[in-house]
Amino acid sequence: MWNKEKTLALASDHAGFTLKEFLASRLSEEGYKVHDFGTYSEDSTDYPDFAHQLGAAVNTGDFEKGIVMCGSGNGVNMVVNKYQGVRGALCWNSEQAQLTRQHNDANVISLPARFIEFEEAWKAVVLFIETDFEGGRHQRRVDKVSQCLI
Q1: Is the pTM of this model over 0.85?
Q2: Domain for residue 2, yes or no?
Q3: Rounded to the nearest 5°, which phi and psi values hold at 32?
Q4: How far apart are CA 9 and CA 22, in angstroms?
Q5: CA–CA gap between residue 4 and residue 11 (Å, rounded)
Q6: What is the SS3 assignment for 92-139?
Q7: Is residue 75 domain-resident?
Q8: CATH of residue 86
Q9: What are 17-62's pLDDT values in tens digits?
């Protein structure tokens, strides 16, 4: 179970800004702490500028979990997965969010702001935050994902 004393990291580009603001507000209302890496408006931006900040912060352990958003969710997910300690998962629905926590121990959820309804994104985020990693046979696989082979 997620400890609400811990802070969640959030980041988006302009396409994900409105969804990020919605999620940040709902999270705060529910007692979660959030750190917003930006962007801070709908003005056109480059998603790597914000996703790199979040990815680096999760990688170093400053934040245990993060939430990133852009139009498709793909760009920000590619960026955060550049960091060896990050396991980012693109989730289009709540079931994916739950499974990626249970089986992959994902620590960053990427949301496709142009393709997911706000309430479904909220359900996905709550399940992502609250679902524990099952470990067991999945731990061996997560360990292999975390290996740097280059």
Answers
A1: yes
A2: no
A3: -85, 150
A4: 14
A5: 19
A6: CCHHHHHHHHHHHCCCEEEEECCCCCHHHHHHHHHHHHHCCCCCCHHH
A7: yes
A8: 3.40.1400.10
A9: 999 999 999 999 999 999 999 999 999 999 999 999 999 999 999 9
Asked if residue 121 belongs to a domain, the reply is yes
CA 58 to chain centre: 10
Task: Reply yes or no on whether 70 is catalytic.
Answer: yes
As a whole number of angstroms, the distance between CA 52 and CA 12 comes to 11
Is residue 95 domain-resident? yes
Asked about 91 being catalytic, the answer comes back as no
Q: Quick one: 93 exposed, middle or buried, by C-beta within 10 A (0-12, 13-18, 19+)?
A: middle
Angle, in degrees to the nearest 10, between helices 94-104 and 118-130: 20
Find how far residue 20's CA is from the centre of its chain: 11
The DSSP secondary-structure symbol of 67 reads E
Owning domain of residue 100: 7-146
Question: Which residue out of 35, 103, 138, 148 is catalytically annotated?
Answer: 103
The one catalytic residue in 14, 52, 70, 91 is 70
- The percentage of residues in the chain with a pLDDT greater than 70, rounded to a whole number, is 97
